[in-house]
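Problem statement: downstream parser choked on a complex file, so we are re-checking the raw output for the LXEULUCI run. The parser issue turned out to be on our end (a line-ending mismatch), but while we're here, posting the original submission so the record is complete.
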Amino acid sequence: MFAGKTTALLGRMLSERETGRNVEVVKSSKDTRYGLDSIVTHDGKKLSCWAMPDLSSFRAKLGDEGYDKLDVIGIAEAQFFDDLYDFCSKVADHDGKTIIVAGLDGDYLGRRFGSVLDVVPVADTVTKLTPRYVYKAACRQHYVDSLVIIEAARLFLDSLKVQSDPHVEPVPLAW
Ligand SMILES: Nc1ncnc2c1ncn2[C@@H]1O[C@H](COP(=O)(O)OP(=O)(O)O)[C@@H](O)[C@H]1O
Ligand SMILES: Cc1cn([C@H]2C[C@H](O)[C@@H](COP(=O)(O)O)O2)c(=O)[nH]c1=O
């Protein structure tokens, strides 16, 4: 929800790839917003991925040979995978691969979301990202009225365009 999770995941995967490591990304097939063949940031950066309903089918989908060659697995929209903890434990501890998880730890009401929080104790590092205030408010409202997020995003992006022009006075957002 505009916090930069997908941007961060994409950046991490590309830098792992640049160091010669073999990487793949899997995302939940529940997230159909931008199609199923890629993870896509809200400003349109893309990286191809596998979309799956659960993580237990990951190895079978890649095949043993493809799976064995992998060094790094990125997981997007992790909040939708019920088997996140079991997958991460097995793949990291048993198979020795690096896993980079991106997902929401809480829903729009601030309640825990899926099992993202369960993998925190077994993670080597955790980065907590938070949306800009305007997006946070709009995302909450989105679940009440789905049109509000679109208008809020448009207003915010318009305000950035105005502020980036040194000859134009910035217009404050009214909320
Ligand atoms: N420092 C930053 N880190 C991440 N995203 C940023 C940053 N500054 C601006 N952005 C913008 O915020 C948006 C974050 O989108 P995205 O990574 O898809 O978020 P999320 O996956 O959390 O919904 C993008 O439009 C990106 O360009
Ligand atoms: C806050 C919130 C989000 N969701 C869903 C909506 C999207 O499919 C993802 C969030 O994706 P993003 O990459 O962070 O934009 O989660 C939901 O179902 N319930 C919620 O409360």
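For whoever reads this later: The first strand starts at residue 23 and ends at 28.
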